[in-house]
C-alpha cells in the first residue's frame, strides 16, 4: 500500500509521461487520485504537469474544496469534472484528463471512436463516445460526461480532449495511452483507405476474452446501453454484450442505480 507521499511522486511521474508523450501542451491536462471517500489528491491549475514535484500536489474533499495546498498552488480548474466521476463511479480511484493529438482531433470533428479495428482497443476500451461540448471549468463538462459514466471508462470531450478513469492512476493513464494509440491507428488507416473492421464472430470472441479476463470497469462487453434497450448496438458489439444473463443482471443493476441517483438528486438528498 502506497503512502500519500509515494502517490504524489507517482502523480509527478505520470505528469512527465503525459507531457513527454505529447498528450498535453504547455500547462494542459490534469489528474487526480482518490485516497478515501473524502480526500483526493489532484494536480494544481496552470502549471506544466511535466515538471511537477510532490509539493505541487493539492488535496481536496469530495466537493472539490481545498483541504491542503502549498502557497502558490490551487487545485485544477477541472476539479468538478473529476469529482463527478468519483461521485457516480464508486469503483474509480483515479481520473486522467489530457489533450492527445489524435483523440482530440476526433473530438473536434465530432467522430466517436467506435470502429473495431484492433484486438487490444476492443478488449481494453470497447468504444469511446463523445461527451457534448461544455465550457471548461463550468458544470457543463461534468453534466455532459455524466451521461456516459455508467457505460464507458473513457470519453472524448467535444472540441476539447479526452478523459479516462480506472481503479488506479497507472491504469487510468494506460487507458489514455491506449485511447490515443487507437485514435492514431484509426486516423492513419482512414488515410490509407477504408479500415477493415472485425465481424460479429471476431467481436464475440474478443468480448469473451474480456469477460474471461474479468477486467474491472464498464465496457460494452458487459453493459451496452443500446443492446439493453433492445436497439441495434451502436458500439460495434453486435448486441452480443446483452446476451449473457450475468451481464444482463449487471446492466439492470446499473440502470436501477442510475434512476435512483437521479431521483435522489432531484429530491436534494
Ligand atoms: P488546469 O491546469 O486548471 O488543470 O487546466 C488544464 C486543462 O487542460 C483544462 O482543460
Output the keywords.
269 residues, alpha+beta, eight-stranded mixed beta sheet, 9 helices, 42% helix, 13% strand, binds 1,3-dihydroxyacetonephosphate, metal-binding, lyase, aldehyde-lyase activity, Aldolase_II/adducin_N_sf, L-fuculose-phosphate aldolase
Explain the overall architecture.
Keywords: Lyase, Metal-binding. This is L-fuculose-phosphate aldolase. InterPro entries: Aldolase_class_II_sugar_metab, Aldolase_II/adducin_N, Aldolase_II/adducin_N_sf. The chain is an alpha+beta fold. The protein has a single domain (4-192), classed as L-fuculose-1-phosphate Aldolase. The protein contains nine helices and eight strands. The protein has an eight-stranded mixed sheet with strand order 4-3-2-1-5-8-7-6, with helices on both faces. Helix 5 links the parallel strand 6 (130-131) and strand 7. The model is unreliable at 235-254 (pLDDT under 50). The structure holds 1,3-dihydroxyacetonephosphate. 1,3-dihydroxyacetonephosphate is lined by residues 27-30, 43, 45-46, 76-78, 136.
Counted beta strands? 8
Looking at CATH, the homologous superfamily is: Class II aldolase/adducin N-terminal domain
How does the helix and strand content classify structurally? alpha+beta
Q: Roughly how many Å is the radius of gyration?
A: 18 Å
Percentage of β-strand residues: 5-15%
CATH architecture: 3-Layer(aba) Sandwich
Total number of domains: 1
Uncertain regions spanning at least 5 consecutive residues: 235-254
| Share of helical residues | 40-55%
Protein name: L-fuculose-phosphate aldolase
Domain Class II aldolase/adducin N-terminal: 9-187
GO molecular function: aldehyde-lyase activity; metal ion binding
Keywords: Lyase, Metal-binding
Amino acid at each position: 500500500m502506497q503512502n500519500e507521499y509515494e502517490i504524489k511522486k507517482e502523480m509527478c511521474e505520470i505528469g512527465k509521461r503525459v507531457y513527454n508523450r505529447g498528450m498535453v501542451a504547455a500547462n494542459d491536462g490534469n489528474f487526480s487520485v482518490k485516497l478515501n471517500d473524502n480526500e483526493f489528491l489532484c494536480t494544481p491549475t496552470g502549471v506544466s504537469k511535466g515538471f511537477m514535484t510532490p509539493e505541487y500536489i493539492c488535496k481536496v474533499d469530495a466537493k472539490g474544496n481545498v483541504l491542503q495546498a502549498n502557497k502558490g498552488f490551487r487545485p485544477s480548474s477541472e476539479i468538478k469534472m473529476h469529482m463527478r466521476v468519483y461521485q457516480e463511479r464508486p469503483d474509480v480511484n483515479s481520473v486522467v484528463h489530457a489533450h492527445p493529438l489524435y483523440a482530440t482531433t476526433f473530438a473536434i470533428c465530432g467522430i466517436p471512436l467506435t470502429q473495431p479495428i484492433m484486438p487490444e482497443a476492443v478488449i481494453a476500451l470497447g468504444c469511446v463516445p463523445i461527451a457534448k461540448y461544455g465550457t471548461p471549468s463550468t458544470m457543463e463538462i461534468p453534466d455532459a460526461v455524466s451521461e456516459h459514466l455508467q457505460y464507458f471508462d473513457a470519453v472524448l470531450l467535444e472540441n476539447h480532449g479526452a478523459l479516462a478513469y480506472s481503479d488506479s492512476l497507472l491504469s487510468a493513464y494506460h487507458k489514455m495511452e491506449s485511447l490515443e494509440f487507437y485514435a492514431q491507428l484509426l486516423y492513419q488507416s482512414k488515410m490509407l483507405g477504408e479500415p477493415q473492421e472485425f465481424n460479429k464472430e471476431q467481436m464475440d470472441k474478443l468480448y469473451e476474452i474480456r469477460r474471461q479476463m474479468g477486467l474491472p470497469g464498464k465496457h460494452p462487453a458487459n453493459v451496452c446501453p443500446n443492446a439493453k434497450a433492445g436497439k441495434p448496438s451502436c458500439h460495434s458489439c453486435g448486441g452480443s454484450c446483452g446476451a449473457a444473463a450475468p451481464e444482463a443482471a449487471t446492466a439492470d443493476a446499473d440502470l436501477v442505480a442510475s434512476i435512483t441517483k437521479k431521483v435522489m438528486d432531484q429530491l436534494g438528498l
